[in-house]
Amino acid sequence: MAQLDTLQKLEILADAAKYDASCASSGTVKRDSAGQSKGIGSTEGMGICHSYAPDGRCISLLKILLTNSCTFDCHYCINRRSSNVRRARFTVEEVVNLTLNFYRRNYIEGLFLSSGIIRDPDYTMEQVVAVARSLRQDHGFRGYIHLKTIPDADSGLIRQAGLHADRISINVELPTASGLSRLAPEKSSTRIEGAMQSMKGDIEDGHDARKRFRSAPDFAPAGQSTQMIVGADSANDGDIITTANRLYGRFNLRRVYYSAFSPIPDASAILPLRRPPLMREHRLYQSDWLMRFYGYSPGDVRDATNDAGMLRLDIDPKLAWALKFRGRFPVDVNRAPRDMLLRVPGLGVKAVDAILAARRWRRLRLADIGRLTVSLAKVRPFLLTEDWRPSALTDRADLESLLTPRAEQLELFAA
Q: Locate the Radical SAM core domain: which residues (predicted)?
């Protein structure tokens, strides 16, 4: 490997990390260095744009690979062993210094670190953990750290990562075991899920220890997450939804991230030639939101798919479900339970909670609902208010066309 300076390495390894979507920095404990005799950093500040927390804060993370060299040869990965890409590798000290220097300049408020496999999984995991350990113990870094772990590494090393990181990621890579076996034959879904189960147990043990002993260290306080590549194999959206729900249930994940497959140079012949529409990735995130916050079951979301098991790209899954089950509508905003109000297209969780609070004091009218939603036209066919009844609107044969956004030609020189 040619000798590269730190800036050249950063250019290569930051670009190589862009395919990993699971870098949100939400859910960790509040921690800062104010009033401390030693330490640097905070998990509460604001920085330049990179990712977003649930409360809308813009979070900036230094997102890099320790190295893009890898002993594995996964077909979908640009950094695979047989790929003809420029290679680079950071030392532990270089990553530590970059993180601290970027933080002092207010460029970032945390680190997202992943890596290709160097030598073997255990050696690589040791290097990743060494970065986090040095930041925490040698420099008192109190910012956010997210480590991407290696399932094949020793469980003790992965546990050490949880002692220093806010969040741990263990990627399942693909939605089905058959897809993983075909596109990444050196990886095992059994080993991946075994590592996730072990991490779940360690996180639960850490929470229990914190309840009993104040001096017990925080163990991965932001939990664990995973990522699935969408469109690299034949799995449809129904398969992906089923897998995501199973992962949430079995491993108490904070998030499942979806990353649309991106064609890579010198790609394997078994990969698709074109990337899936980015809207497919967006619809999967919407379906994930419905299951996590709106009370939809995986079966409900699959009911919103077409005959091929794919979510529609022209309308969101919530509207697709409502159009398919029109017999459940309209619902009375002044009487319907919360779970049914959450099924009304155009009403979000905050709007429903506001409706429930307001209707304790008076009967709600259509204008009241209009102040709580972006599109009153989307809501009207599915609800009743004190002064509004949709009559035959809910059952109109052309209702779908009325609610589907019209495609518009953009103007190159529009103001």
A: 54-300
